[in-house]
Amino acid sequence: SQTIHQWPATLVQPVGSPLSLECTVEGTSNPNLYWYRQAAGRGLQLLFYSVGIGQISSEVPQNLSASRPQDRQFILSSKKLLLSDSGFYLCAYDRGREQYFGPGTRLTVT
Amino acid sequence: ILNVEQSPQSLHVQEGDSTNFTCSFPSSNFYALHWYRWETAKSPEALFVMTLNGDEKKKGRISATLNTKEGYSYLYIKGSQPEDSATYLCASTSYGQNFVFGPGTRLSVLP
To answer: Over the stretch A7-23, which tens digit does the pLDDT of each residue have?
Structure first.
């Protein structure tokens, strides 16, 4: 069966510090992978998606970047965090018509 | 870019009450409509995926309907229980496009 992992679960970082969030998927090969963010009081916003190693598409301009160094690994990064980067970050993968989500990372930028 | 709306934004009901909420989405180029249940500190859990106009899906006390011509879906909960408290998300997909999520409806069921 497929499982999806994210870490860390929670993170508090000062403004201007770097960020690295990791997502890994088990039990499937060549999945489509997604990073979403939910800011306070808002819906899920798609940030990046990837259809394969090294292939990243960005949905909205922002202070973040993503990389996919391995088939089942998806990383969300920032060189310098902004206050507005605070939120709940979810990684997801496709299976058929469905998307399945990881447990999420709560990021607070102070 | 699709715009998916949900109403109400939040809802408080008493245990045992039945309730429903709405998801509206652009009907052009429609592919599928998804409902998720999202509890705090957990990942969203898929409830239903619907593709055909007039589709009705049911899982226990929760059911959903779909109208692709007018671009809306209803989620119904019969006899709400405190464990139904969660945020209910809908998402629409169009051909060749990624999921677009609505802002969610936050349901609180009071014992």
So the answer is: 999 999 999 999 999 99
